[in-house]
Amino acid sequence: MLQRNIKDINYLQFLAGFVEGEGSMSLAVSVNKKFKYGINIQPIFNVTQHKNGLDILNSFKELFEGGTIVEKSGSRDIFVYTLKGYKNIIKSVLPFLETYVCPFSCKMKEFAIFKQVVLASSQGKQKDKDSLIELVKLTYTLSGKGKNRKRSLSEILKIIEDKTIYFDNSIQSLQSILTQISQIDYDDVRREEYEYMLECINKED
Asked: For the residues 123-140, what does the mean pLDDT come to?
């Protein structure tokens, strides 16, 4: 039986199989008034396992020297290892993927997009308007999460063009909704969501 040892090449190749089968590379697009252009792209690396495979997830946490392992929402027997942040991804995840996963992977296109956005962002390209637009467009071509985003690409591009107009309009809309919310049959989760959004938007830079 293969022993858990992150210094063993055979074990690293073993872990690579879980990345190919149960792993994902995604690019989260966050919207917040504090960002220079109202938008921020955050790289995320995940591996999912049944509770019987917690040792696998802990191996990734040890290997990459960080990250979190949490129960998957709505699935008590499923756990997810997550690592975020450009420095962590560049230092630990990209070298591992290039060495042990990519040579045999069917996710090469996904990896290429992920890597391009991560490296460009680490070089400060998100601080340049034109570069950020190109990175966002590239991010939206990424399979998986890119097909199920809360905001369309066109909406994100409008925010980048003029975040002031977007957030001012959002405040007015949310305030209007909240003043009427007691008269409309909204569920509790919906109400909390609006209140939280308004609180975030109203925060000072």
From this structure: 96
Residue type, 83: L
Encoded amino acid at 45, one letter: F
Q: What is the value of pTM for the model shown?
A: 0.79
Contact of 90 with 118, CB cutoff 8 Å:
yes
Beta carbons of 138 and 153 less than 8 angstroms apart: no
Q: What confidence tier does 165 reach under pLDDT thresholds 50, 70, 90?
A: confident
Residues contacting 154, CB < 8 A, separation 6+: none
Count CA atoms within 13 Å of residue 125 on its CB side: 18
CA 20/CA 13 separation, integer angstroms? 11
- Tracing tokens 């792209």 back to the chain, one arrives at 41
In this structure, how many other beta carbons lie within 10 angstroms of the beta carbon of residue 49?
21
